[in-house]
Amino acid sequence: MNLYIVSLLLVEEEPSNTLLQNILGVFVTVGIVSICIYYVLRYLESIYVKYNKKPYFIHLYFTLKKLPLHLQAFLDANDFYASLDKKRKRYFAHRTVRFLENTRFVGREGLVVDDFMRMQVTIMVTQLTFGMRHYLLEYLNTIVLYPTSFYSILNKTENIGEFNPISKALALSWKDFQKGNLHLDKGKSLGVHEITHAIHYNSIKNNNISCEIFYDTFLLLEKYLGAEEIRKKIVESKILRDYAYTDKFEFIAVLVEVFMESPKELKKQFPEIYYYVVQMFNFRYFED
């Protein structure tokens, strides 16, 4: 009799699965499966990149955002945007909106930042990252514009441009930015230079597929440039200004300036280096 009562008590004490527990179980299972699928696909894409030198895809959006008409006019006036087909133009406009939504613009020393200024910087960032799937840079959420050169508290020097990853800010002299943007500075582009620094730093700190491609290709480029004969040829060609030889970060920033300003010249003189840059940014729009 005692054994019978004990057995009944044990049965009553066994926890039964409630509806909430079942739902939580489903969510946990779906979550675990989703994570496994993500890492499998991520691994497979890494293999794909190894052989094809580009990601599975670049553009995938649930909805496409549109610029207001008064801002769209700035895009329409841009040469790179004008060269795109209709589908890519919609993607470019969407990315422009997203960057504007996620970036704060600040004027210094009395400079009032207007729509024209915001759009010129935004268009340049969007162009440089247009071949990348992950185009919003984690370490860039503020653009600081000065009328001309400014004193850098960080470096204790007078600068025309500076990327500060700690404050996630890019500081630019508007005068010098415009000189490069209008191709008035002998092939130099302050905007391209400093934005490349931001992209480079972002690629070191993140491991998404765009960052992986950029950084891994940069390492391959470094290895290629390790040959004394190649380095000598580059120096003698004078295709890069002297500032490129300050360090490896300045080298890639100056190289990308040349790539964006004079792609045909770079491709003609140094096709291998040209294609390394193409692969780093997945920027194949000069090839169309």
TrEMBL record:
| InterPro entries xref list | MetalloPept_cat_dom_sf (IPR024079), MtfA_fam (IPR010384), MtfA_N (IPR042252)
Could you state a single Gene Ontology molecular function term? metallopeptidase activity
Q: Tell me where the transmembrane regions lie.
A: 20-41
Looking at the keywords, is tRNA processing present? Answer: no
CDD domains reported for this sequence: Peptidase_M90-like (cd20170)
Keywords, alphabetical: Membrane, Transmembrane, Transmembrane helix
The record, for Gene3D superfamilies, names: Collagenase (Catalytic Domain) (3.40.390.10), Glucose-regulated metallo-peptidase M90, N-terminal domain (1.10.472.150)
> What domain of life does the UniProt record list for this protein's source?
Bacteria
Q: Which GO terms describe its cellular component?
A: cytosol
Q: Which protein, by its recorded name, is this? A: DgsA anti-repressor MtfA
